[in-house]
Automatic annotation (TrEMBL):
Gene Ontology CC: cytosol
Enzyme Commission number: 2.6.1.42
Keywords, sorted A to Z: Amino-acid biosynthesis, Branched-chain amino acid biosynthesis, Pyridoxal phosphate
Keyword Lipid biosynthesis applies: no
Cofactor: pyridoxal 5'-phosphate
Annotated protein name in UniProt: Probable branched-chain-amino-acid aminotransferase
Coiled coil: none
Domain of life: Bacteria
Reaction(s) catalysed by this chain's protein: L-isoleucine + 2-oxoglutarate = (S)-3-methyl-2-oxopentanoate + L-glutamate; L-valine + 2-oxoglutarate = 3-methyl-2-oxobutanoate + L-glutamate; L-leucine + 2-oxoglutarate = 4-methyl-2-oxopentanoate + L-glutamate
UniProt GO BP: amino acid biosynthetic process; branched-chain amino acid biosynthetic process
Keyword Amino-acid biosynthesis set for record: yes
Organism of origin: Bosea lathyri
Pathway given in the UniProt record: Amino-acid biosynthesis; L-leucine biosynthesis; L-leucine from 3-methyl-2-oxobutanoate: step 4/4; Amino-acid biosynthesis; L-valine biosynthesis; L-valine from pyruvate: step 4/4; Amino-acid biosynthesis; L-isoleucine biosynthesis; L-isoleucine from 2-oxobutanoate: step 4/4
GO-annotated molecular function: branched-chain-amino-acid transaminase activity
Amino acid sequence: MSRIVYVNGAYLPEEDAKISIFDRGFIFGDGIYEVSAVIGGKLVDCEAHLARLERSCGEIRLALPWSKAELVAVHEELIKRNELDEGGIYLQVSRGASDRDFAFPKDVAPTLVMFTQARSFVDAPGAKTGIKVVTTPDLRWARRDIKSVNLLAPVLAKQFAAESGAQEAWLIEDGVVTEGASSTAWIVKGKTLISRPLSNKVLPGITRKAVLAFLAESGFTFEEREFTLEEALDAEEAFITSATSLVMPVTTIDGHTIHNGAPGPTALRLREIYIAFARKGGVLG
Ligand code: PLP
């Protein structure tokens, strides 16, 4: 069965959906995206993803003509039309289609595309075995806090990971781990979770924020600081967070075993709490 996707106001079978070859998302990567998870047919923390979308669009001066409520309604409609129980919903908005010219076009409506991808998140194999991570230099631009559709550097990093038999790449800059190619990076020492502060150097993870909201419930403390690769190799545990990996234990980094090669109790406990939160649609408490 072909998917039903959303393009500029219409719900269409994916093979009938079209956008212009002059779309600025395609020509310049002049656009923003978001990814929300669906678990048990429910959107997870979608409001927070849409708040980040609004912020990203504001930072590139792309005026969004849709309200958050309208965008949530499209998400819900796609879940219904695709009978999506578990998977991701991708939203891509570009500055629209216009003859090729770098400066912003006048009187052009943004292009909005949304599509679903059915995938198992809760029973992902990595949750039982842990995932392998390899490191690679961080080649990205200076505004990584904007969720831009320019994903060439992460594409190259992920391809390097795939060719190395790993599931994620950790990006290294000035000797420290910035983040995963598509996730937030964490290490654990005792009862302390360590992840770097938010800045223009990283995407502010929505899953990161949720995990930090569970500190009291989980009994962990948080140390917000940078960490080096050497420190990560020496850590008791490591894990990543993202909308689609949830909380995922890391069991090797560059071939070095972390936590005896088995998922650690901290990552597994946070994953359990996150899944309970996700099943409620991403509502705290
Ligand atoms: N960092 C980067 C570079 C990402 O691409 C992502 C997710 O795609 C994340 C962090 C995690 O963000 P979130 O938890 O909002 O999915």
